[in-house]
Specification:
By secondary structure, the chain is α/β, with parallel strands linked by helices. The chain has 3 domains: about 150 residues, Rossmann fold (3-Layer(aba) Sandwich); about 70 residues, Helicase, Ruva Protein, domain 3; about 100 residues, Winged helix-like DNA-binding domain superfamily/Winged helix DNA-binding domain (Arc Repressor Mutant, subunit A). About 45% of the residues lie in helices and about 10% in strands. The chain is built from 14 helices and 9 strands. A 5-stranded parallel beta sheet has the order 2-3-6-1-7, with helices on one face. The chain has a two-stranded antiparallel sheet with strand order 4-5. The radius of gyration is 23 Å and the shape is globular. The protein starts with 11 loop residues before the first helix and ends in a 30-residue tail after the last helix. The structure holds adenosine-5'-triphosphate and magnesium ion. The site of magnesium ion has 4 residues, from α3. Belongs to the RuvB family. InterPro entries: AAA+_ATPase, AAA_lid_4, DNA_helicase_Holl-junc_RuvB, P-loop_NTPase, RuvB-like_N, RuvB_wg_C, WH-like_DNA-bd_sf, WH_DNA-bd_sf. One of its GO terms (molecular function) is helicase activity. This is Holliday junction branch migration complex subunit RuvB.
Amino acid sequence: MTDPLVSAWASDEDAAADQTVRPKRMSELIGQHRVREQLHLLLQSALRRGSPPDHILLSGPPGLGKTTMAMIVAAELGAGLRMTSGPAIERAGDLAAVLTSLQHGDVLFIDEIHRMARPAEELLYSAMEDFRVDVVVGKGPGATAIPLDVEPFTLVGATTRSGLLTGPMRDRFGFVGQLEFYEPEELEQIITRSARILDVPILEDGAVEIGRRSRGTPRIANRLLRRVRDYAEVRGNGVVDLKAARAALRVYDVDELGLDRLDRAVLAALLRHGGGPVGLSTLAVAVGEQPDTVEEVCEPFLLRSGLIARTPRGRVATASAWRHLGIPAPAGTVVGGNPQGGLSQTPDLFSLEP
Ligand SMILES: Nc1ncnc2c1ncn2[C@@H]1O[C@H](COP(=O)(O)OP(=O)(O)OP(=O)(O)O)[C@@H](O)[C@H]1O
Ligand SMILES: [Mg+2]
């Protein structure tokens, strides 16, 4: 597997650490202005009407704040919160038990909602729409469906793969919030806030440097902060500053753009093939990883930062990738996006380096 330091997925350590620094109220959230404003309106109007708001779907890559926002929705509504996840709901009956035990106005959070079993999903449809579920008792010809009422509730679903949600499921959400990657300045604010909560002395240049290398993702920013803190405590004067950040991230092999060893290996393999196009399986073999790992772990960030592009014939390295590895690009190389910002600029396949 890839170096977990810059993986956006939560590790066990993150789960505990996330808890401490997780914003608890809307006013503590940094960034995500669009979704925040939309959610604010939705929640305020529901509070005025005195009825639960529409069901909410939060979609976006791991570590951007879906769980955080779900918890904030409940807090802002002053409502009870029940948390479960798609894979945890194996049978429709499990879900029926949860649904029928909800109290009026509760928030039910289902993480990874795209991974729910189909029978449970169908049960959820009627609960979402009519606040009613049919619980089937018995098997075969003798089976009977017993209709049960569900108290009005708000479902908050989270998904990293909104494309895998079924149409009927998606249609039942009154509000879909698409979370975006964060700007470096926002990550800097998140890091400064977390350092304050963790009682870690930090200088602005340290926060800027860590923010720049955090792949637009708060979870990674908080994790890198903890590693730089370790370094500063053991090898430095305990202060997280530019010098400590640079030195620590060198030890952990996270480069200026936030790429780790595997990301750079993928880029280097592409360049060895003249910049591509190279198929996914060839690339995976070249770096000694599973194709899934390359596709799901490395590629999203490499694509987003404009270092590679996908073409019908395979992956190609952009001019930014050549520049990043310090090798002159051959003529005709695709120009990349903007790796410094590391944001979702899609490389323009039709503009060629002069
Ligand atoms: N807008 C934000 N402002 C400040 N900190 C944030 C923000 N969003 C997320 N974080 C921090 O990042 C951590 C990870 O966020 P969260 O667990 O909500 O991500 P997620 O989208 O649910 O990820 P996953 O898809 O892996 O479940 C949180 O513990 C929190 O500290
Ligand atoms: Mg989550």
